[in-house]
Amino acid sequence: MEARIRARVNLALTFFALLFFVAGSSPPRQFVISNAERRIDLSSHIINVHLTLKVENAGTRSASEVVLALTPTEVDHLAMVDASAIKGKRKKTTSVRLEVKPTELPDAPPIDTKYFTIYLANPLNSGESTTLEVLYVFTHFLEPFPAEIAQSESQLVFYHDTALILSPYHIKQQTTFIKTPSTKVESFIRMEPTNRVGTEIKYGPYEDRPPYSISPIHVHFENNSPFAVVEELVQEIEISHWGNIQVTEHYKLIHAGARHKGVFSRVDYQSRQSSNGASSFRYLLARLPPRVHSVYYRDEIGNISSSHLRTDSLKSELQIEPRYPLFGGWKATFVIGYGLPLQDFLFESSDDKRYLNFTFGCPLIGMVVDKLTIKVVLPEGSTDPSPVVPFPVEHHLEAKYSSLDVVGRTVVVLEKKNFVPMHNSHFQVYYSFKPIFMLAEPLMLASAFFMLFVACVAYIHIDLSIRK
Amino acid sequence: MVCSWGGYTFIINLIPMHVLLCIVTGRFSSRLYIAYAPLVVLGTLLAALVPVVGFNAVMTSEHFASFLVFIIIHVVAFVYYIKGILSPKMFKVAVTLVVSVGLAVCCAVIAVLIALVASSPTKGWSGRSLSLLDPTYASKYIPIIASVSEHQPPTWPSYFMDINVLAFLVPAGIIACFLPLSDASSFVVLYIATSVYFSGVMVRLMLVLAPAACITSGIALSQAFDVFTGSIKFQLTGASSNTEVDAAETSSSTAESQTDAVKTEKPEETAKNRPSRKSKKKEREHGEKPSTEAKAEKKRLLALPLESSVISLLLLVLLGAFYVVHCVWAAAEAYSAPSIVLTSRSHDGLHVFDDFREAYAWLRHNTDVDDKVASWWDYGYQTTAMANRTVIVDNNTWNNTHIATVGTAMSSPERAAWEIFHSLDVKYVLVVFGGLVGYPSDDINKFLWMVRIGGGVFPHIKEPDYLRDGQYRIDSQATPTMLNCLMYKLSYYRFVETDGKGFDRVRQTEIGKKYFKLTHFEEAFTTHHWMVRIYKLKPPKNRIRGKTKKSKSKTSSTTSSPKRSGTKKKNPWQ
């Protein structure tokens, strides 16, 4: 803790020291943020930071690149960053998504600061201003303190941030709102004017802060929301052109909150549920596509009997219960599998290719997935696959052999780290496939049997005896 | 055979017995020799390849019978060979010579063998086999064998449950085997006789009885069908031929009987396909007349009356059908229920008790990979396979001492038990407790066996200490030794808080000691229905010099020091 604060102070000092060298010389410095409002939502273990910036071009030239700055710890835990421009006034607002890319600023003063550049749709002329909305999502950012709790204790966590927004621009006015899940806040660092009402802590407004000014704060508060993290999720989507898509999902689940310490008493857990194991969780909800069939839920040692499936025409909900309630640090692994009708997800594109349109994501609600691997197993004989995913992922090809495969099935493997529910979106895998390959396996079987019978017939009719 | 089960000793003793029987009854033939001699040689060699058996295939008495018969069959074969070469006179001389010399040699060899066998502690027989020969042996000397419910003698209902109608068909089958006694049928008789005996000793040997019972009752059924169909055939053809012979006597009767024959044939065909009531009635009506006509011939050929044979045929088919229904039911209800997932039907549907797998999954995911788990040996294989953790004892009950150590720990007071477990490097102790939901085969009910097995090796554990007036009880009348032993404490720890009284639904009583604390163990996990409880051994406390000396030397130095030395003596692993 202390070391970190000291590091931050040092960092701040270097910021200020280096500031003099570069002030006025770098090109992004032409913007001024006239008003910044930050809303930090700490109600679950996925932290959403909504940043509303009113950017004004104070320079002489028109510019289209706005730079955001983040500390290295923030970047390590950053799951996604999303920016959009707000157009219109008051009620008639429309937002346009903008492109955000991580960039390196070679002449930027603080070496450790990481930058993201927002590319505006229209360049901002000198003197004009625009409103930008930025969403940061952080995971694994709340630090449980104490790090180990007993069954009857509730979970307290630290949130570290700075009261002033880190930015390469001059900020004329800024306010930060921090929303905690409950009114139980152990402590927080004040920086006047600071105001706490109910579940909200308000920092600011602060006037006229120079670039790279920070002021470390922390909030120590109660957060009993389930810190459910899927350490690894491998989702295998197997396409069969005979009319079925089989999805198999392998989960490695962990409770990433404060570690459970000492005794687990069932009698306390069952009789005093409100005060016991407040941060533990028992049920998980998976939202599956509609018209799902043959759903199973099992682990290495067989079927897990505690699950319920509710289906209607729009969605299917699978409520599952791991074999035991998960306390801090406890793990569980399980497999969910289901079949889907092919016509809902496979389409033909205009250029005579086929494509699979599927949700990129984890069906379990409110989960952070540390490593998500999606394997799309294309039918045997399909060629030149190409995935289209709305955000950057790693991908490579594999081959898989299932029964009666000769050349192996092409598998498109997509890997994404630090996945949050906000990422949920559709992705496509394009490939070309000749329908004649569908008949390959039946024909192979038929010909094998035919050969067998022919051989039998031949054997019966051939006389191999030496003597007549 | 050897690979799969230790019960192979049954077969390798049964076959020599049959061979010996054949030799004694003068049924020796070269076919028998060719069948038996290679079996012994090859079979022994192959059995010795199985790691568990190894040299036991030639070392233990269970295998001696086959070797003995192997020698005998060679002698007999040699005698027959000599007999073929020499003239009868010379043969007699040779026999007297050989017998006198051979007897002397045999006596010497047998004496050596007996001495060898007698020198081994169990007389060369393993405990399991001895308990087969003497059903009371195990309960007297080897509690670990007697403790297994599979090793108990079966009750009559279990016979009817398992083999059902076969129980009645088997005697008939044995009789059928004797009708023409051949080499093969004598084997069947021997097989059924021995397997009935063995199944009477142990429930699990019902497995051996089942195929034998199937074979003999199959023989019985086939014989019965043979007789019935034969007599029907005879009745039909016999009736028509009779009428032809007697045609000259009375033309009127021939007409009647011919029509009868025609009529009876028709319903007979339909009866074979589907036994309807109408056809039965018709048969009864028409069957009477021809039966009276051909009485003389029937008696000669031991044929049955037509109607009774048809009816009994139908009854037999019906019996078979019911048997199939019973088998399907038994397979579904009794044999297919996994003992690891329990279900109970209540008014609001099926309730599943999946506590065992809950506990095993918890162990698998939330303990260190090299943690050791101690439990009663029944759960050893399950823990190894499902929880993927090392266990101290498992269902391979070869190491009796080890099981006795765990039994001793379970029946010792907490401190002594902790020392035993700690010396075994155990991290977690698992007990099965059915008192909350009424699951009867839990560790408290098995506990007396732990005491017996533990006491068999470590004599300071005495069974009477756990019994009040010869009765095993856990209520307020229980002995203090019982109420302070580890098993009681681990099972009932904080149990009273569930209902306020601590009512055990298996034993149907309130428990004796309700409020107590654990000092050397802590509850690590308890499943949803409390069926499996896992405790963690607390780490040994640090010695704080000043404090412990002051407090302990004053209060409990006199009491604790003899205790400690006592526990050290008790603990065999230190």
TrEMBL record, chain A:
The keyword ATP-binding does not apply. The keyword Ligase does not apply. One of its GO terms (cellular component) is oligosaccharyltransferase complex. The chain crosses the membrane at residues 443-462. Residues 1-25 form the signal peptide. GO terms for biological process: protein N-linked glycosylation via asparagine. It comes from the Eukaryota. Its main location: endoplasmic reticulum. It is a single-pass type I membrane protein. Coiled coil: none annotated. Pathway: Protein modification; protein glycosylation. It is found in: Endoplasmic reticulum membrane. Keywords: Endoplasmic reticulum, Membrane, Signal, Transmembrane, Transmembrane helix. Component of the oligosaccharyltransferase (OST) complex. Belongs to the OST1 family. Subunit of the oligosaccharyl transferase (OST) complex that catalyzes the initial transfer of a defined glycan (Glc(3)Man(9)GlcNAc(2) in eukaryotes) from the lipid carrier dolichol-pyrophosphate to an asparagine residue within an Asn-X-Ser/Thr consensus motif in nascent polypeptide chains, the first step in protein N-glycosylation. N-glycosylation occurs cotranslationally and the complex associates with the Sec61 complex at the channel-forming translocon complex that mediates protein translocation across the endoplasmic reticulum (ER). All subunits are required for a maximal enzyme activity. This is Dolichyl-diphosphooligosaccharide--protein glycosyltransferase subunit 1.
Automatic annotation (TrEMBL), chain B:
Residues 245-261, 554-564 have a biased composition (Low complexity). It is a multi-pass membrane protein. GO terms for molecular function: dolichyl-diphosphooligosaccharide-protein glycotransferase activity; metal ion binding. InterPro entries: Oligo_trans_STT3, STT3-PglB_core, STT3_N. Residues 262-272, 282-294 have a biased composition (Basic and acidic residues). Pfam families: STT3, STT3-PglB_core. Residues 541-553, 565-574 have a biased composition (Basic residues). Keywords: Endoplasmic reticulum, Glycoprotein, Glycosyltransferase, Magnesium, Manganese, Membrane, Metal-binding, Transferase, Transmembrane, Transmembrane helix. Residues 245-294, 541-574 are annotated as: Disordered. The chain crosses the membrane at residues 6-26, 33-58, 64-82, 94-118, 165-193, 310-332. This is dolichyl-diphosphooligosaccharide--protein glycotransferase. Its cofactor is Mn(2+); Mg(2+). It comes from the Eukaryota. Its EC number is 2.4.99.18. It is found in: Endoplasmic reticulum membrane. Gene3D superfamilies: 3.40.50.12610. It catalyses: a di-trans,poly-cis-dolichyl diphosphooligosaccharide + L-asparaginyl-[protein] = N(4)-(oligosaccharide-(1->4)-N-acetyl-beta-D-glucosaminyl-(1->4)-N-acetyl-beta-D-glucosaminyl)-L-asparaginyl-[protein] + a di-trans,poly-cis-dolichyl diphosphate + H(+). Residues 370-429 form the STT3/PglB/AglB core domain. It comes from Gossypium raimondii. Belongs to the STT3 family. PANTHER family: DOLICHYL-DIPHOSPHOOLIGOSACCHARIDE--PROTEIN GLYCOSYLTRANSFERASE SUBUNIT (PTHR13872), DOLICHYL-DIPHOSPHOOLIGOSACCHARIDE--PROTEIN GLYCOSYLTRANSFERASE SUBUNIT STT3A (PTHR13872:SF48). GO terms for cellular component: endoplasmic reticulum membrane. Pathway: Protein modification; protein glycosylation. Residues 1-216 form the Oligosaccharyl transferase STT3 N-terminal domain.
